[in-house]
Design a protein that fits this description.
about 190 residues, alpha/beta, five-stranded parallel beta sheet, 8 helices, 5 strands, globular, binds D-altro-hept-2-ulose 7-phosphate, binds zinc ion, isomerase
């Protein structure tokens, strides 16, 4: 096998192995989807944040809620805390990078909101602090991590530990589970 073929095969094999193990997370997904529907029906919102690829996932999932996943229905309150450059730069500059999500959760998080912090290591301080602040505000603090869980798993109310130790594979599982959650939520609001 060529080097390229072997590299591709490694990615595909790891991906398939991780995705197959997601069947074991059906009860978790069902529980979280139900809590998101309950939150949105009560007028609450879902906040998302993460770093790098996980910041992109946060934006992607918030857009599914505000705009649509597959079918037309009313707009749903999803906010990515990764997008406002003035808030991110002022927060990072004045109070430190570790505070950039906690500050926004303090400003926007209300009792009953669902707050989803995404960190594959589970140890990014800004994500850990955002989850800690979410609990202070009476939100449901949910962590999406890789297999290890890290500090995020310790501080969150609920943790989805994607079944892979590899950052990219965990991110792929996060997005797949995120899409399933958005599909479920959307079906609860589609008439
Ligand atoms: O997308 C990737 C790797 O696939 C990177 O951008 C990755 O998200 C960044 O290195 C992050 O800073 C990693 O942070 P975390 O997931 O450990 O919290
Ligand atoms: Zn990536």
């Amino acid at each position: 096998m060529s080097n390229a073929a072997s590299l591709i095969e490694t990615h595909l094999t790891e991906h398939h192995a991780a995705v197959q193990r997601l069947s074991g997370f059906v009860p978790f997904i069902e529980d979280l989807a139900g809590r998101m529907v309950e939150c949105l029906k009560a007028g609450g919102k879902v906040l998302f944040f993460g770093n790098g690829g996980s910041a992109a996932d946060a934006q992607h999932l918030a857009a599914e809620l505000v705009v649509r996943y597959r079918v037309n229905r009313r707009a749903l309150a999803g906010i990515a805390l990764t997008t406002d450059t003035s808030i991110l730069t002022a927060g990072g500059n004045d109070f430190g990078f570790d505070s950039i999500y906690a500050r926004q959760v303090e400003a926007l998080g209300c009792k009953g909101d669902v707050v989803i912090g995404i960190s594959t290591s589970g140890n990014s301080a800004n994500v850990v602090n955002g989850l800690v602040e979410a609990k202070k505000q009476g939100c449901l603090a949910v962590a999406f991590t890789a297999e290890g869980g890290g500090r995020c798993a310790e501080v969150a109310d609920l943790c989805f530990r994607a079944p892979s130790p590899v950052t990219a594979r965990a991110q792929e599982c996060h997005l797949l589970v995120g899409h399933i959650l958005c599909d479920w939520v959307e079906k609860a609001f589609a008439s």
